[in-house]
Write a structure and sequence with these properties.
The chain is of the alpha/beta class. The chain folds into 2 domains: 208 residues, 3-Layer(aba) Sandwich (Rossmann fold), CATH 3.40.50.300; 101 residues, Helicase, Ruva Protein, domain 3. The protein is 47% helix and 15% strand. The strands form 4 sheets. It has a 5-stranded parallel β-sheet with strand order 2-5-8-1-9.
């Protein structure tokens, strides 16, 4: 009994600490909403990626405020922002930087690329060939870039938001499965509601655009990154994550035999790690010091939709990966 009361006291203390540490979330949301109307889910996912030190792959048609969202976020926390437009003729040096010969000094100097920023928008990442995609993904994974014989650490916080066209469009290079796995979340964004769109039009007809002020410091964000690790996650929640991931790999073991022919491969261990980190970050954004099963369910689609391979049978019968995740969540027992 004493042990369980100690745990409860610890959770209470963590919860109080997180409520204080996450006070800036509401302030940040209000500032971002000056520019972005609706799209609450996208903004929340941006914050989860930022605080969880992950990266985000966004898929949606052009014109849904993807660039505006990350640019607004960078201004609200006084961070540096850069945008890389991925095109078929882009080179890795255009992303990470290169060595340039200085004739006056008779030596090579480093010219750092646009990846050296707090917020990097990789626009239409699937328009560029694999070599360029790999250069960016290596920087995301290692949090450093090697130019010549020297390595340079990337700034903190560091968030890459990559957008990609829906794959029906021509002239695109699909990201390989192993590289897609490097993104913590894959977020699908849709058209705004009619009421929101009316407000968007009115806002864009104003003479002066909304001024975004820095309302949060980078040190607040770095502190939040540390605090997320303290959020309490019960062993039962960890087991719940293991069961969800396990069901994508071995559906027969979880009374999901009908899914077996539809899945060519399940989520990797990186998937389970990212589901745990994203759930903690989601709890932080919701200003809570502990993770609930609902947090796992809320973030599960974004963490898993790019980690489950569909078989030819699934594609032939037009089964969507979201349907598989929904089925898994319906069957796997909630703690």
């Amino acid at each position: 009994m004493e042990n369980s009361s100690t745990i409860q006291e610890d959770i209470r203390a963590i919860n109080e600490k997180i409520q204080q540490e996450s006070a800036f979330i509401d302030l940040l949301m209000m500032e971002i909403n000056k520019n972005i109307i609706g799209q609450r889910q996208m903004i929340e996912r941006l914050l989860i990626g930022l605080i969880g030190q992950g990266h985000i792959l966004l898929e949606g048609v052009p014109g849904l405020a993807k660039t505006l969202a990350i640019n607004t976020l960078s201004k609200a926390i006084d961070g540096s922002f850069s945008r890389i437009q991925f095109t078929p003729d882009l080179l890795p040096a255009d992303v990470v930087g290169t060595m340039i010969y200085n004739m006056q000094k008779n030596e090579f100097a480093v010219k750092k690329g646009p990846v050296f920023a707090n917020f990097v928008l990789a626009d239409e990442i699937n328009r560029a060939p694999a070599k360029v995609q790999s250069a960016l993904l290596e920087a995301m994974q290692e949090k450093q870039v090697t130019i010549g014989d020297k390595s340079y650490a990337l700034q903190k916080p560091f968030l890459v938001l990559a957008t990609q066209n829906p794959v029906e469009q021509e002239g695109t290079y699909m990201l390989p499965e192993a590289q897609v796995d490097r993104f913590m979340l894959k977020v699908i964004i849709d058209y705004p509601e009619a009421e929101d769109e009316k407000l968007i039009i009115k806002q864009n007809l104003k003479k002066t655009p909304a001024q975004i002020n820095p309302v949060v410091s980078q040190s607040d964000i770095l502190r939040a990154m540390d605090s997320v690790k303290d959020i309490y996650m019960d062993d039962k929640i960890i087991q719940y994550i293991i069961d969800i991931i396990g069901a994508t790999r071995y559906p027969d073991n979880y009374k999901l035999s009908k899914l077996a022919p539809l899945i060519s491969f399940g989520a990797s261990p990186r998937g389970s790690i990212n589901l745990a980190i994203a759930a903690k970050s989601y709890a932080f954004v919701k200003r809570r010091g502990y993770v609930l099963p609902e947090d796992i369910r809320a973030i599960c689609y974004d963490v898993l939709r790019h980690r489950i391979g569909l078989s030819y049978e699934a594609e032939a019968t037009n089964v969507q990966v979201e349907e598989i995740i929904k089925e898994v969540l319906n069957v796997v027992e909630v703690p």
